[in-house]
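For the sake of clarity, the format in which proteins appear in this thesis is described at this point. The record quoted next illustrates the convention:

___
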Amino acid sequence: MENTLKLMILLERMGKVYRAFLRRLGKKYDLSLSELSTIINLGYLNRPVSLSYLASSFGMKTPSLFEVMERLELKGLIYKERASTDKRKVKISLTPKGKELLKDIIIDLEKIYKLDISKGDLDSTFNLIFSILKRLSEIRLVDIIRICYTCDNFQELDEGRYLCQVTGKVLTYSDLNIDCPYYKPIESYST
């Protein structure tokens, strides 16, 4: 029980540190926390995504995120591409200016991660975080989290090695994905 409480406190503190760092970056680049998070997520996804997809990634309602998108578009950081067949469907991606800003943000983010962490420790950290997210999904404490562990295309080979059945790629802990374009929820997670 003591270790469980300690883990929860550490996760809470990491979240606070991360949010404080993002607020500092937001001031530097004149971006709100939501705008900054959107740019980081679009950069990570590295593909055009729908507003509803992005909203579900944040656990937000689409209308709330729509306002963030409007501000980012006015700043010239995102581009909205309307589908030719249905003008209501919009895909969002970073503009060249948004990608340049993302590069600067990454440089700033990497400063806090320039810790001397071995690959083994980093893999263990990824495994722990992914395992916690998987468990939170299993007990329905959080909505579906699009991670490898909850994907129907994911297969465990042995300790620390996995297979993506779509790409055929063997993965280690540090290769596991968040919001993969091939994600297909395991039926037990989607019902």
User: Anything to note?
Assistant: The first strand starts at residue 49 and ends at 50. The radius of gyration is 18 Å. The helical segments are 2-29, 33-45, 51-58, 62-74, 96-112, 119-138, 187-190.
